[in-house]
Amino acid sequence: MKRLTLLCCLALAGCGGDWRDKAVAEAEAAVRAQRGDPALVFTHVEVTGDSSSGQACGTFHKADAGANAYGGGGGDRDGTRFIYFVDGAGGQNPYIDDPAAPYPANKSDFALNWRSQCLELGYTG
Fold it and tell me: What is the DSSP letter of 114?
């Protein structure tokens, strides 16, 4: 019985892959699409929370312009901060720490979400 349980667990783990890897890939694709720049470089991307209500948090910059190419409001030395919500955030996804970004509409909400959805859930950047 133990062998059967072990084989089932291994089979399930091999089929779906890690949801965190998928979340990071989706986050990077969403930020690239919103910015219209397929060459963006991502750093310090981590996933917090769980597979149904988690988020990917990290930073990005233009490949040819170095850090803070977009002038993000976070003052992060490695680029502009973003939050990608796994559940889609009701279509308001991703949040980008830049006044020109469409989400969040209320720019002070970014700081609150960065703290509550990234830092307080274990993001170390």
Answer: I
